[in-house]
Write the structure tokens for this entry.
Amino acid sequence: LDEPLGALDLKLRRQMQDELKAIQKRVGTAFVHVTHDQEEAMALADHCVVMNDGRIEDEGPPERVYARPKTRFSATFMGESTILAGKASDSRNGRVTVTTKLGPISLPGTSPAGAALALAIRPEHLVLGDAKGDVSLGTAKVSDVVFQGSFKRVLAASTQDPALQFIAKSPTSATIQAGDTIPVSCNACDIILLAD
């Protein structure tokens, strides 16, 4: 199936996703479904394959490919992420300390000292405002807040490193507005550690 739902509007596309899954289960045969729509891929796939320039970058169950991508390309292709560059400064007892422009961050994992790393944080894992995750990412100035129905998509630039753009999902009840300067944090267990 090569982009079978590409020309449909969102509501019809979701209905057809359900129909395709029902047909596949009823017929009992494998489908190879090619799409550039990441949400569609995750909704339909039992096994997801992410390709880049004709190479397989990542593969596995869609939940794993999204939650723990193997490469930076896969992390940014399969949904949005805030990417923070750093270097491993210490690794022991199953934890690695990564030196970043926002300060040192300790998280589960291992890496040789001096290795270039990228930390990926999904929008739903960033904590904005007074609620605190166990890793402080400093403060950020909000540039845009977009209502998306079930959440607000917030874009904010780090005050310590203005080139770093945070992409976050906040509850619709959040009172965040463009121009606000807010604390940003997350939990170490939600940070995806990638070779840069």
